[in-house]
Structure formats: structure tokens, C-alpha cells
Specification:
alpha+beta; four-stranded antiparallel beta sheet; 15 strands; Peptidase; Phosphohistidine_dom_sf
Length: 543
């Protein structure tokens, strides 16, 4: 690891800093930006998420208008960047969650991390805000009936006009517009996510009181109409010759590998990965079509609902049914708003590449992708002195950060360590996120853009799942991720497709190897190695 000292000219925006007792996690936000962030990535996400989160909570009346001002102290921000990884400020998030009606800081931490720290500071609502919450929260909930779809449709129209054609006339204007749009859509996404978290807590609480907590994973799945299910089904249609690749890109071209990271490329620029996965779908039976798998998940959820509601009095049955329906609506909405902000990320990407070409032609930079190593402010204003040296320094730092890892959950500044293989002892443990028990052969995939394509029934083991992985996930018999929670994108997509899922293992991609035969238990969160690749048992002996 390089010396931490950075000169006044050679700044490093992605190293991070923290108070010694502050708790952070890579869960959820790490999934949103899975690759090592570049300075341009962080300048979009850091300030954008902070402004959006404050505004989203303000919309519920929980925060006063004065709280919309973003503080200079990064310890008071919702997220931070450590060694190129985006992390959530757990203590700050607990504090804000505790202000929401029907939500506590413990509920939030349990939903996010699977458990609550013994020394977690209790959160309290502010009684002086109750009159504001009483007026604004219902209005915010009413807006949720139409806002997510409207935001998504507006963003798609903009993306098709300003981004999809490529070669923008004014890349600087597109860069600024994309950043503004990211904040606006992220505000809607955060509102939706907060409502969904509250509803999930209510469903878990009610089923627990009824003694049917076993139904929760199925009740929170199979709602149908989730936009990512359509993406997976459209890949199938491409493979069957029912949809052209041009039509697919028009619908989904802003997705791609590591799509939350500005640095990289989207399917708009390179659709080859879609073509490869579609070719695999061409030979699969109709019963394995993503839409058919989603229909089976819907049927399972409806059966679980009927089982839960059967023994309740009419009034309670009606109220619980409405709660479950609204939860399903929010599941669909959270994916709509996520697609919306990803179009803004792709707009930033297109603007940066076009601006890079201009700066190379002007002799200011050496390569079009050098712009990914500058911040939005640096690109929109006069370039920094010695821009080439700054880009080279930051590029080198980013590669150094790629060679190390940091804990998924940590307090204060994380201690980076060299990436090493993990010894699981034959069992990998994570958080249960999709019901079912599946035995199958492991396929470890570290990059959705790689040549790896799953065979029927293989267990996909990966670091994370974002929408760019959806086409690959749709081929899996089960899903195991290093990063994630039951409310994360990968878990939602797996449940909607009826795929057994374990998330947040922390070390699955290092403890498991392609060719291992495993049993994935989506109820307990355990992944047991039955046979090691090469014909060895879990103890390393011939089987």
C-alpha cells in the first residue's frame, strides 16, 4: 500500500477518513457500486446520495429544512468511500431510521446486517417533528402511487434522446445534467426504499406474532411485474429470435457490468455479453423461461398469503392483505427508481468519454478514459494543474486498492489486507434471502462481462448482483453472494425468479471453487460443500 500522505496537488478522493468509533458497512451500497470507484464515480455518488437522502427524509417531515444543508464533516454523511469502496454510515443511518414512523434503528440494522450490535445506541424519534410527520408522511406515501413510474418513464425518454445515440454535442452540459438527474431520481429511490424497509419490518413483526415467521421469505417474493424480471425475459426473447438486439438495447442498454460505477462500459456501448447469454437461453426449455420462473414464485407467494390469512378475523385479514399488496407495490417501485438513476450514471459515462475525446484532441489529456480519474468539479471547471500527473497518480492508487480488501463491516478506518483465499471448513454462512434447498455445481463468476455462462442448475457464486447480472442470474439454480442483504437488489431479483438465495457470505467467492458440489439452504443461510472440485470431499479427501 502506498504512503497515505498526499500532496496538495496530488489528492486522492477515494481513500476516505473516519472517526475511530463510527461503524460502516459495504452492504447494499457496496452492491450498488461493486467495482473500485474512480474519482468521477465518487464525485457523482458521494454528494448525490447525501443531498438525495437528506431531501428524501425531509419529504416525510422527519427533518427540518435546515437539515438539507450538506455538512462539511464526512462523518455526518450517509456514505463514504474507503480505499475505493463505497460504505454506508451505519450509525447515521440508524439515527435517521429511528426518526421514521413505524421504524426503529434496531429494525434498520437488523434488516441491513442480519443482527443488532449489543452496544448499539438506542434511537429516539423527535416529538417536536410529529405534527410535520403527520401532515407530510401521508402525502409522501400518496405520491408513491405514481412517482416511481413517472420518474422512470421520464428518465427513459431522456436517456433514449440524449445518451443512447452517443457523441453528445455538449458533453459538459450532459455531465452537469446527468449529475442533477442522479440526485433527483436518487431522492425518489430513497423515499421508496425507506417505505419498503418500514413495510418489511411490519410484515416480519406481524408474522412473528402469528407464529409464522417461516412464511416471510415467500411472502416477500413473487410480486410479479418487477422490471428486472422483464430484463431477464427479454434476454430469453433475444435468444429465441423474438426480439432484436437493437430493441433490447433500446429498453435496457444503460445496464452492463458494474453498472453503478461510471468507469467501465454499458450494453449501449458493447452488447456482446447479452448476445452470449441469449445464445444459452436458445436451448433451454420453456419451463425455464424467466417469466415462467417468476410465475411460479407468484403462485408460491399467493399460497403463503392464503395460508397466513386463513385463520384471521375478516377485519385483520383485510388490513394485512392491504399491507402485503402495498409491500409488493414498493418492491416493484424500488427497482423502477433504481433503473432511473442508472440511466443518469450512463449519462455521466457517455459525457465523460465524449469530454475525454475533446481533451485528448486539445492536448490536455492522453486518453479519453483519463476523465474517469477527475471529479465532476474538475471536469466542469478549469482542469487541475499538471492534470496528467494527477490522473497517473490516481490511476495507480486505484490499482493498489484493487489488490487489497477491507471488511464488509468495520469501525473507524478499515485495515486493508491483501486478498487471500478463505478456508470455510466446508460450510459458508450468510444471510437467508430466498427460500428453498438446492444441490448443484458451483460456478464462481467475478465479472458479469466475462465469458462464463452458466449451465443448467449451476450455483452462481459471485461478489454481488446488480441489474447487469440479472441475465446471468436467470440461468442459476441458486445464488450465493459475498455482499448483500435480504433487501438488496440481488435478493429481490432471486426471489422474484424463484431462485434459492444466500447473501452476505463475505467470503463465498474465495471459499468456494468452480466445480464444487454444494447444498444451498435459503432458509438457514448455509452453503455446505458436499464434494470439492476434483472429486474431493469437504475435508479434501477422495470421495
Amino acid at each position: 500500500m502506498a504512503d497515505d500522505a498526499v500532496s496538495a496537488d496530488l489528492t486522492d478522493p477515494i481513500r476516505g477518513c473516519s472517526e475511530p468509533d463510527r461503524m460502516w458497512t459495504l452492504t447494499n451500497v457496496g452492491e450498488a457500486t461493486p467495482d473500485i470507484l474512480s474519482p468521477l464515480c465518487w464525485s457523482l455518488w458521494g454528494g448525490g446520495v447525501e443531498r438525495a437522502s437528506r431531501a428524501g427524509i425531509y419529504d416525510f417531515g422527519v427533518l427540518p429544512r435546515s437539515a438539507l444543508v450538506v455538512p462539511d464533516d464526512p462523518n455526518q454523511w450517509a456514505t463514504a468511500c474507503f480505499y475505493g469502496r463505497q460504505a454506508m454510515n451505519v450509525d447515521r443511518a440508524r439515527e435517521l431510521a429511528g426518526l421514521l414512523p413505524g421504524m426503529t434503528g434496531d429494525d434498520f440494522e437488523r434488516d441491513l446486517l442480519g443482527s443488532v450490535r449489543a452496544n448499539a445506541i438506542p434511537t429516539r424519534s423527535d416529538p417536536t417533528r410529529l405534527p410535520f410527520v403527520a401532515v407530510k408522511a401521508p402525502l409522501a406515501a400518496i405520491r408513491q402511487r405514481w412517482a416511481p413510474q413517472r420518474v422512470h418513464d421520464h428518465q427513459m425518454a431522456w436517456w433514449r434522446t440524449e445518451v443512447l445515440p452517443g457523441d453528445p454535442a455538449d458533453p459538459g452540459a450532459l455531465l452537469a445534467d446527468s449529475a442533477d438527474r442522479f440526485t433527483v431520481v436518487m431522492r425518489a429511490h430513497i423515499r421508496t426504499r425507506m417505505i419498503l424497509n418500514t413495510l418489511r419490518s411490519q410484515v416480519e413483526s406481524i408474522t412473528g406474532r402469528l407464529g409464522r415467521s417461516d412464511l416471510v421469505p415467500t411472502l416477500l417474493a413473487g410480486y410479479g411485474g418487477v422490471i428486472e424480471t422483464r430484463l431477464a425475459d427479454d434476454v430469453w426473447s433475444v435468444g429465441q429470435g423474438e426480439l432484436s438486439i437493437a430493441e433490447f438495447i433500446d429498453r435496457h442498454g444503460f445496464h452492463g457490468p458494474n453498472e453503478g460505477n461510471v468507469i467501465g462500459h454499458s450494453w449501449r456501448e458493447d452488447p456482446e455479453a447479452v448476445v452470449r447469454i441469449a445464445a444459452v437461453h436458445a436451448g433451454r426449455p420453456e419451463a425455464e423461461r424467466p417469466r415462467a420462473r417468476a410465475d411460479r414464485a407468484v403462485a408460491a407467494r399467493e399460497q403463503a398469503e392464503a395460508e397466513l390469512l386463513a385463520g384471521l378475523p375478516a377485519l385483520r385479514r383485510g388490513l394485512l392483505r392491504r399491507l402485503l399488496q402495498f409491500t409488493g407495490f414498493q418492491v416493484r417501485s424500488v427497482e423502477l427508481t433504481k433503473a432511473g438513476f442508472l440511466t443518469a450514471v450512463d449519462g455521466t459515462r457517455a459525457a465523460a468519454v465524449a469530454l475525454g475525446r475533446q481533451l485528448v484532441a486539445a492536448g490536455a489529456l492522453d486518453s479519453p478514459d483519463d476523465t474517469f480519474y477527475l471529479t465532476t468539479a474538475e471536469l466542469l471547471g478549469p482542469l487541475p494543474r499538471e492534470a496528467r500527473a494527477l490522473v497517473a497518480f490516481r490511476r495507480q492508487r486505484r490499482e493498489q486498492y484493487r489488490a487489497v480488501e477491507i471488511p464488509v463491516i468495520f469501525t473507524g478506518m478499515p485495515e486493508p489486507a491483501a486478498v487471500e483465499d478463505a478456508d470455510s471448513g466446508g460450510v459458508v454462512r450468510g444471510t437467508p434471502a430466498g427460500p428453498g434447498v438446492v444441490e448443484g455445481t458451483v460456478r464462481v463468476v467475478l465479472d458479469a462481462d466475462s465469458d462464463d455462462v452458466l449451465s443448467d442448475g449451476e450455483v452462481l457464486v459471485c461478489k454481488f448482483v446488480d441489474p447487469g447480472w440479472t441475465a446471468l442470474v436467470s440461468l442459476a439454480g441458486a445464488l450465493v453472494t459475498d455482499i448483500g442483504s435480504p433487501a438488496s437488489h440481488g435478493a429481490i431479483v432471486a426471489r422474484e425468479l424463484g431462485i434459492t438465495c444466500v447473501v452476505g457470505t463475505g467470503n463465498g467467492t474465495r471459499a468456494l471453487r468452480s466445480g464444487d458440489v454444494v447444498r444451498v439452504d435459503g432458509g438457514t443461510g448455509e452453503v455446505a460443500v458436499l464434494v470439492r472440485s476434483g472429486g474431493l470431499d469437504k475435508e479434501g479427501q477422495p470421495s
